[in-house]
Amino acid sequence: MILKPSMRSQVLPMPVVLISTVSKDGVRNAAPWGCIMPILRPLDEIAIASWLKRDTLDNIRDTGEFVVNVPTVEMAEAVDICAKSFPPEVDEFEEAGLLPHPSAKVAPPGIDGCIAWMECELVEEILRERFSLIIGKVVCLEGNDAFFDDGGGMDYEKARPMSMILGPDGVCYTHPARGNR
Ligand SMILES: Cc1cc2nc3c(=O)[nH]c(=O)nc-3n(C[C@H](O)[C@H](O)[C@H](O)COP(=O)(O)O)c2cc1C
């Protein structure tokens, strides 16, 4: 079957993360993000793609900081609430019933109950006509002890990190299962 080139994101499983930021006025924001990738193993930078009309993008530009939170599939309801378009003055932690997880190196808090938290500083913005690519450096990476062994390995069948497959009717949330090795 030949698919339209624009459907390339319907053939790739993508992660789902929540990006938490704080506005220059101190308002907390949280938004789900799928277009995110680590830039080459084992470096410490990460790239996210953003449409231009995003409070998340404005906050990253204004403060230079963000946290990439890795949610469990059980957090799907909160993820969907954060996907709504709230005005910038609305605290999205309160709207979605999210509790803060203290950050060590950046001002925005992480989100309590997540599997891992990547505290990031803005390194570079690559601005295109319709979108922007944000490159961040991970300055602190913390895993939730409930889901990691002493060697830093994630029990992903217990943690159930959220991912998604896009279909013609929208997003289907998924989580990893063990393969054959
Ligand atoms: C699963 C999922 C993944 C998303 N991924 C992206 C993304 O990669 N880039 C983007 O700009 N918006 C993405 N969005 C849309 C934003 O999360 C949504 O527009 C949100 O309201 C933006 O919030 P903000 O204006 O507070 O930043 C995604 C939404 C969902 C539900």
Q: What Rg, in angstroms, do the CA atoms define?
A: 16 Å
CATH overall fold name? Pnp Oxidase, Chain A
Count of alpha/pi helices: 4
CATH superfamily: Electron Transport, Fmn-binding Protein, Chain A
Overall, the morphology is: globular
- What fraction strand? 35-45%
Distance between the termini: 29 Å
Enumerate the strands of the largest sheet in spatial order, edge to edge or round the barrel. 3-2-6-9-10-5-4
The major pleated sheet works out as:
7 strands, antiparallel
Structure overview:
This protein has 181 residues and is mainly β. The chain has a single domain (15-174), classed as Pnp Oxidase, Chain A (Roll). Helix content is 14%, strand content 38%. The strands form 3 sheets. A 7-stranded antiparallel sheet has the order 3-2-6-9-10-5-4. Strands 1-11-12 form a 3-stranded antiparallel sheet, with no helix packed on it. A two-stranded antiparallel ribbon has the order 7-8. Strand 4 and strand 5 form a beta hairpin. The radius of gyration is 16 Å and the shape is globular. The protein binds flavin mononucleotide (FMN). Residues 16, 29, 31-35, 49-51, 54-56, 83-85, 164, 171 line the site of flavin mononucleotide (FMN). Flavin mononucleotide binds next to strand 3, strand 5 and helix 1.
Main attributes of the structure:
181 residues; mainly beta; Pnp Oxidase, Chain A; 3-stranded antiparallel β-sheet; 4 helices; 12 strands; 38% strand
